[in-house]
Design brief:
Elements: E1 2-8, H1 12-20, E2 27-30, E3 47-48, H2 56-66, H3 73-92, E4 118-119, H4 125-138, E5 143-146, E6 150-157, E7 160-167, E8 173-183, H5 204-211, E9 216-217, E10 222-229, H6 243-247, E11 251-253, H7 267-281, E12 286-289, H8 295-301, H9 303-311, E13 321-330, E14 333-335, E15 347-349, E16 354-355, H10 368-386, H11 394-398, H12 408-426
Parallel strand pairs: 1-2, 1-8, 2-5, 8-15, 14-16
Antiparallel strand pairs: 3-4, 6-7, 7-8, 9-14, 10-13, 11-12, 12-13
Helix pairs in contact: 1-4, 1-10, 2-3, 3-10, 5-12
Length: 430
């Protein structure tokens, strides 16, 4: 099998990267599960945009402060200045953001933002964006989409990537030759007992990178979301109660139904406050009150959250809901430069798999979708500009031995242990 560009991952970063490439380049996108089981589909809150030049300094400072000033300032600058172009593209792809009575784009505010700069579509912004990108990719004749196809290794020589080893849907193993490979494999939530992530997102690309000596960065920077619906016996993915709910006025209470914290603190600070209150109260959760938001607004802006809580026996217009922190996002990953290039030639990383330093130690709410799209586009532009200079090594594929990868499932389990060990080796506390 051959392709010009291989993209491992069908979330928003992988899809947008493919759509930004020239139409004369053959692109192959693979996904470990089905095409709609990426965390991009789960993003509830929204996507940030620089509304006007006067907001630049405030947006930059909000991002840096949330990241404890460990952010890469150049990456933050690139993200903010590229935001209007990304939103323009999304609108052209048919994304429907909320609008006001005059038809103008409506903006909301979330925790640690000093101004309203977040575009949204009800409480399913990620689904709206990613489904539109997916539909566009499915209509593109130069893009091939492979479901239930797992990246189990890359093929490299002399620190250059020439393609990948894949396990196909039927369980067979094959090699795919590519001029460029982009890792867009998502986060690491599947390694945790409580996480908002899909269970199959287990950081495989990180272990593969480590195996081949590709640089990693900030492996201990794991973000815990302050508010997910508490279920005592659930082994399923934790259901997220969006940051936007608190941005619109929802309050947090202790066991005595007393407010104990500023709900708009950055996520890591709010999470710490919730854990401290749970320890003090000797409880497994705190309470979130959505009744502070008018019922009509709740049902219009947050229908998915309202419906889920109802399915769990809670009417959010009449009673509080139990919430608890859970693993949510990974700020570390495969180290990349400002064009999403890794330390290995012809290998890129984008989305949550990559660490370009935008988020620093703690991600600002609703920066994830924007960051993923901005740096996916930069990867596509860099690949397209340099495609003629890629190295080829047909001997590497001629000598490929699929039998050495036959126990691919065991290899994946080993990769998961590698990622956990790498995180725990650096981790101070969760």
């Amino acid at each position: 099998m051959k392709t010009d560009i291989l993209i491992a991952g069908a979330g928003c970063s992988g899809l947008y990267c493919a759509l930004q490439l020239p139409k004369n380049m053959q692109v192959t996108i693979l996904t470990k599960s089905d095409l709609k089981s990426s965390d991009s589909f789960l993003a509830q809150g929204g996507i940030c945009m620089l509304r006007e030049k006067d907001d630049y300094d405030s947006y930059f400072e909000d991002t840096m402060r949330a990241g404890h000033y460990e952010n890469d300032a150049r990456s933050v600058d690139i993200m903010i200045r590229s935001s209007q172009k990304v939103i323009k593209d999304l609108l052209e792809y048919g994304v429907q953001f909320q609008r006001d009575d005059l038809g103008n784009l409506a903006f909301t505010k979330e925790g640690a933002h000093s101004k309203s700069r977040i575009l949204f579509h009800k409480d399913v912004t990620g689904k709206e964006i990613t489904s539109r990108l997916l539909a566009q990719a499915q209509r593109s004749p130069n893009i091939r989409l492979l479901e239930y196809t797992t990246l189990i290794d890359i093929l490299s020589k002399n620190n250059a990537c020439y393609g990948a080893v894949l396990r196909k849907a039927d369980g067979s193993v094959c090699a795919l030759e590519a001029s460029y490979t982009a890792l867009a494999c998502g986060g690491i939530g599947g390694l945790y007992r409580h996480s908002t992530n899909f269970r199959h997102l287990t950081g495989d690309a990180l272990a593969i990178a480590k195996k081949h000596g590709v640089a990693l960065k900030n492996m201990d920077y794991v973000q815990i979301h302050p508010t997910t619906f508490y279920s005592p016996n659930s082994e399923e993915r934790s259901f997220l109660i969006s940051e936007s709910v608190r941005g619109e006025g929802a309050k947090l209470y202790d066991k005595n139904m007393r407010r104990f914290v500023n709900e708009l603190l950055p996520r890591d600070q709010l999470t710490a406050a919730i854990f401290a209150q749970m320890k003090k109260d000797e409880t497994d959760h705190v309470w979130e009150d959505l009744r502070t938001i008018p019922a009509d607004e709740l049902k219009r802006h947050f229908p998915n959250i309202v419906a889920y809580c109802a399915s769990m026996g809670y009417d959010v217009t009449k009673e509080c809901i139990p919430v608890v922190p859970a693993q949510h996002y990974f700020m570390g990953g495969i180290k990349v430069d400002h064009d999403s290039r890794t330390s290995m030639s012809q290998l890129y990383a984008i989305g949550e798999t990559a660490c370009n330093g935008v988020h620093g130690k703690n991600r600002l709410a609703s920066n994830s979708l924007l960051e993923s799209l901005v740096f996916a586009a930069r990867a596509a532009k860099d690949m397209a500009a340099n495609i003629q200079d890629t190295k080829k090594d047909p001997n590497l594929f001629a000598s490929f031995d699929a039998s050495s990868y036959q126990d691919a499932y065991a290899l994946e389990q080993e990769y998961q242990k590698t990622v956990l060990n790498e995180i725990q080796k650096q981790e101070l506390a969760l």
